[in-house]
Design a protein that fits this description.
This protein is mainly α and 183 residues long. Helices cover 63% and strands 6% of the residues. The protein is built from eleven helices and three strands; from the N terminus they run H-E-E-H-H-E-H-H-H-H-H-H-H-H. It has a three-stranded mixed β-sheet with strand order 2-1-3. Helix 7 packs antiparallel against helix 8. The chain starts with 6 loop residues before the first helix and ends with a helix.
């Protein structure tokens, strides 16, 4: 008989062995067997869907069409194990959006931290668009400071030129303070 060491280890076992699962999450191509108690405890959106609006109560199935398989797998693993795998910034963006959509705020914060750590000349423009889209003040502030510090290099990037051409509000938020300091 295996003796567990911690609650986290027990939840990892639950994640790895969906025998007692009572809900199925479906993407366009895959099915994930999960436990409603875990979903409800970690996400107010799933709590609402499972508690009130589940379309297929007999099959206990929820369609999750707005998240790809890998992102949903990472999100489910986080809900059970409270860990985010070592992922690149693009996958962190996808997971961030899923965490926002399903109101898993601690996961959203972890993804935001991953994006801050991954911020570089080649992705700063994408990350700042993300920060503005999801009104993430910490990510906004960090990325604005990064772009300001590296403005000479970033202003030559195609991504920056596209932001300027699109007349994104975020460009003004970055450029106006720069202009004011050089006047």
């Amino acid at each position: 008989m295996k003796h567990s060491i911690s609650l986290l280890e027990d939840f990892k076992t639950l994640y790895e062995n969906p025998t007692l699962s009572d809900v199925e999450l479906r993407t366009k191509t895959e099915k994930f067997h999960v436990h409603s108690a875990v979903l409800c405890a970690r996400s107010t959106v799933f709590n609402s869907e499972i508690g009130n609006d589940m379309k297929d109560k007999l099959n206990r199935c929820l369609e999750v069409c707005d998240v790809d398989d890998d992102t949903l797998r990472r999100m489910i693993k986080y809900m059970y194990c409270d860990v985010v795998e070592d992922i690149g910034w693009k996958d962190a963006c996808l997971l961030y959006v899923a965490a926002h959509t399903y109101a898993i705020y601690s996961l959203k914060q972890k993804c935001s931290m991953i994006l801050r750590e991954a911020c570089c000349l080649s992705n700063a423009c994408e990350i700042i668009k993300h920060a503005y889209s999801y009104e993430d003040e910490y990510l906004k502030t960090f990325t604005k400071e990064y772009i300001t510090a590296h403005y000479r290099e970033i202003k030559e990037k195609n991504e920056w030129k596209l932001l300027v051409a699109a007349k994104e509000k975020l460009v003004l938020d970055i450029v106006v303070p720069l202009l004011n300091t050089h006047i």
